[in-house]
Amino acid sequence: MTEQPDIVIIGSGIGGSTIAAGLAASGASILILEAGGHIEDRPENRDQRAIFQRGHFRPKELWYETDGSGFNPGNYYNVGGNSKFFGAVLVRYRSEDFAEMQHKEGVSPAWPFAYEELEPWYSQAEQMYQVRGALGEDPTEPHHSLPYAFPPIPEEPAIAKVRTRLKQNGMHPYSLPLGVDIDRWLAKAKTPWDAHPNSFDGKMDAETVALALALQHNNVRLQIGSKVTRLETAADGGRIETIHYQQDGIARTLSPKLVILAAGAVQSAVLLLRSANDKHPTGLANASDQVGRNFMNHNSSAVLAISPFYRNDSVYQKTFGFNDFYLSDGEGGPPLGNVQLLGRVSGKILKANMPKIPEWLLDRVSSHAIDFYAMSEDIPHPDSRIMADGDRIVLQWHRTNWDAHLDLVARLKGVLKAAGFPIVLSRAFDKKTPSHQCGTVKMGTDAATSPLDLYCRAYQHQNLFVVDASFLPTSAAVNPALTVAAQALRVAEHIKTRDLAA
Ligand SMILES: Cc1cc2nc3c(=O)[nH]c(=O)nc-3n(C[C@H](O)[C@H](O)[C@H](O)COP(=O)(O)OP(=O)(O)OC[C@H]3O[C@@H](n4cnc5c(N)ncnc54)[C@H](O)[C@@H]3O)c2cc1C
After folding, report:
1. Nearest atom, ligand 1, residue 437 CA
2. Contact 459/452 with Cβ under 8 angstroms?
């Protein structure tokens, strides 16, 4: 490793680690600066009281509303980023998501390229993350040039029973594409994986898959505990010349040829805004005034279906979803969204939200319940914004398309009641759960309206790329990680041919 790396990647989440894997074989010297440390192999990783009741892994950070009130967001800073906690649903956007789509409230804009452009990279990302799945079950499924390399995760009998009932009622449940080696996961402890941190226990996350591949090359290095605080441009305001970061309280700098920002959709926008200088008074890459805008996070709810006659003895539950309301409401109306199983609620998890009810009673309820995740598209809106106010991060989330989400939840409740669950409860996720944050540094064809070009290069700073979920022009109603990974591989190839070939 030379003293100044060729490339510095800021953040080791899905975007940062996947682009590192894509660039590793180029031989360029690559340094990954990661603010956090490793998730260690500790008993708390599978202790639902520690995770959900005591918030053991939740950073103590506060973000703020525009009225000055603070809230504690579930945004994770560790090697592998949020993917260490993710539900590992590694799914493609539907091909229709790349075109303009009329929603109940507003229009989801077209991507600057069609699905076919990303398709080969989706295939590569699925192979890399060893996605388990089955083609041909979901009528909304886009074209795949490669089949999944592994069959779906086996469905537990209590869950298979519900899938059958939904099918009998006209739904089209499909096996969720999942990045989990279930035998390895269960060998450590019999728990679900969604929202449970992974050390190296079989969940295919950014650290265990992409970063591990990248670090097999001795030209790639990871430096933990290194928080980037500012990017500085050359005097003419063009190239990024210096990265300022803090390592164990010591201020340090680096000056690589290329800077790849992948700190997550909130932190990447904040870093660009905080790096304002005389040439860029509103922040770097921000001539379009779009940095921090178009924040999206999905409209989503947990939906709990209960029946005294149904017994749920499953461990991980999360094996199917359905898209019957995805492209339309099922009656020719606008799209409503995706439904997928959550990772099996328990008394210990319910207790976190209902502290006054005894855990034994909640355990009894959960043993007769099955829980779903209803997810609707959040449409980009310029007033949905991340702002930097001194040291504070301010989130003004202007939700869009909420009525469509309420409609989705109502229809899901109807479907579940028809499937034999007389009691169906729901609870919406709010800004304290920014799990699907995206859109804050979007890509587009016009520098006047987008900070990034179609390869995530900043129009104003030719040696700066942003490859985390910030670049997404729309949120669709699909879990984001595989799309971030696919684009990171596409950008890696572009950098190899355009920036490293010379
Ligand atoms: C509980 C949970 C469940 C989820 N389930 C799913 C799912 O099933 N499927 C799916 O597709 N998605 C899921 N997601 C979302 C998914 O995890 C994210 O979309 C994805 O991980 C985002 O990757 P990223 O690269 O954009 O950013 P991040 O994961 O946020 O990574 C950013 C990295 O940058 C580091 N960093 C931040 N600031 C700095 C700085 N200043 N300097 C240096 N480093 C910095 C962070 O520590 C972090 O490691 C889930 C998320 C959560 C929290």
Report:
1. 19
2. yes
The mean per-residue pLDDT over the stretch 339-347 comes to: 97
Q: Distance from the CA of 88 to the center of ligand 1, in angstroms?
A: 12
pTM: 0.98
For residue 469, which atom of ligand 1 is closest to its CA? Answer: 26
d(CA 268, CA 264): 6
Return the best residue to mutate from 33, 226, 435, 440 for the ligand 1 pocket (most ligand atoms within 8 A of CB).
Answer: 435
pLDDT at residue 502, rounded to an integer: 66
pLDDT digits (tens, 9 = 90+) for 363-373: 999 999 999 99
How far away, in angstroms, is 73 Cα from ligand 1 center?
13
Calpha distance 76→229 (Å, rounded): 17
Pocket of ligand 1 (CB under 6 A): 10-16, 33-36, 74, 77-78, 81-83, 85-89, 195, 227-228, 262-265, 267, 271, 435-436, 468-469, 479-482, 484
Atom of ligand 1 nearest to the CA of 271: 41
Residue bearing the CA closest to ligand 1, atom 35: 11
Question: Residue 81 C-alpha to ligand 1 middle, in angstroms?
Answer: 4
Ligand 1 atom nearest the C-alpha of 481 is 11
Strand 30-33 and strand 63-64: the pairing is unpaired
pLDDT digits (tens, 9 = 90+) for 425-478: 999 999 999 999 999 999 999 999 999 999 999 999 999 999 999 999 999 999
CA dihedral angle for residue 474, residue 476, residue 479, residue 484, rounded to 10 degrees: -30
Alpha carbon of 374 to those of 224, 386, 472: distances in Å? 36, 25, 21
Q: How does pLDDT run across 211-236, given as a tens digit for each residue?
A: 999 999 999 999 999 999 999 999 99
The C-alpha atoms of residue 477 and residue 408 are separated, in whole angstroms, by 12
Residue that the structure tokens 């899901």 belong to: 412
248-263 pLDDT tens trace: 889 999 999 999 999 9
Cβ neighbourhood burial of 317 (10 Å; 0-12, 13-18, 19+): buried
